[in-house]
Amino acid sequence: MKRQPFLMSLIIIVAWTTTVVGQSPRDRQAFHDRAMRLISQLASRPLTPGDTFLTWNPEPGGLIHTIRVDSGILESSLLRADRMMGTAHVEWFEGRVARFDVRWTRADTLKGSKVDSAISVRGSRDGDSIRITEPDRRTLAVPTGWWAVADFGMEEQLIPILRSMPADKPAQLVAVLRPYHLRWDTISVAVRDSAGLRIAEVLGRDKAHELYIIDTAGRLLCVWRIDRVGERLPLPESARYEELQQYLPTVRAIVSHFPVERGRTP
User: Fold this and answer.
1) More confident position, 124 or 49
2) In whole angstroms, what is the distance from residue 214 CA to residue 118 CA?
3) Which tens digit of pLDDT belongs to each residue from 88-114?
4) 63, 155, 241, 259: which could join 55 in a potential S-S bond, CB 3.0 to 4.6 Å?
5) Angle in degrees, 0-180, between the axes of helices 3-17 and 25-42, rounded to the nearest 10
C-alpha cells in the first residue's frame, strides 16, 4: 500500500473509533494533535482554515475536509488519499451565488510536494448569466430555481441553500454546477428542523443519499451517509466535535428513521 493512502486510512480509522467508542479526553487530544500533523504532511498547499472533518470511505482511502462559514462567504477544502486537493471560495449575495473561485491540485507522489497537475475555475453571476473567466472565457445561463456551485465531495457549499429552503416541504430540485468538469448536475433536497438542528436530506443522481446536519449558526455538524459507508464526522477534540456530542441523542434519533444498511448509529 502506498504511504499516503495508508496514512489517510489510519487517520480516518482511528478518528472514527475515537468518535464512536469514546476514549478519554486526553487520548482524543493526543490523537487530534497527531492527526493535524499528518494532515499537514499530506497537503501540498494550505487547507482552508476552519472546522476539520474526516470521511471514512474505503475506496479512496478516506477524505479530509475543512470548512469555514463567514458572512456571505463559504470556503472549504477537500484532501484525498492520493493527495488530490480542492479548495473553493464561494461568495453569496441575497441568497444567490455571486462569484466563485475553485482550484484543484495534485501533488506528485514521486517528487515530494511538487504539484503535477492543477486546474482553476473562476466565475461570477451577471444578471441571468454566469461569466466564466478561467480556465477559458465562456457564459452559462443561470438556472431557474435553486442552484449552487460545488464539486463532488464538497457539497458543504450547499449550506446557504440548505438553510434557506422552507422546512417540511416536498423535496426540491437543485441545479449544481460542478466546476472541475464545468457541467451541471441535479440533486434532490428536502429539509426539516428538529431540536434546533436543520436536517437536509440530499439525494444525488448517482444514488448518493446523505443527511446534512447543521446547527442554528449554519455550521456543519456531520454528514451521515445512508446508501453506503461514508460518514463525515468532526475531528475529535475540535469545537464541532464537542458540539456534536451535545446533540448526539438527537442525531441518533434522526438517523434511526433511515434504513442504514450497516446497522450503525453515531
Assistant:
1) 124
2) 32
3) 999 999 999 999 999 998 776 545 555
4) 63
5) 160
The grid coordinates of residue 208 equal 448518493
CA distance 231 to 215: 17
In whole angstroms, give the CA distance from residue 208 to residue 37: 31
Residue 264 in this model has a pLDDT that exceeds 80: no
HEC states along the chain? CCHHHHHHHHHHHHHHHHHHHHCCHHHHHHHHHHHHHHHHHHCCCCCCCCEEEEECCCCCCCEEEEEEEECCEEEEEEEECCCEEEEEEEEEECCEEEEEEEEEEEECCCCCCCEEEEEEEEEEEECCEEEEEECCCEEEECCCCEEEECCCCCHHHHHHHHHHCCCCCCCEEEEEEECCCCEEEEEEEEEEEECCEEEEEEEECCCCEEEEEECCCCCEEEEEECCCCCCEEECCCCHHHHHHHHHHHHHHHHHCCCCCCCCCCC
d(CA 143, CA 130): 10
Whether residue 97 contacts residue 148, with contact meaning beta carbons closer than 8 Å, is answered with yes
Residue 245 near residue 257 (C-beta atoms within 8 A): no
Given a cut of 60, whether residue 116 has pLDDT beyond it is no
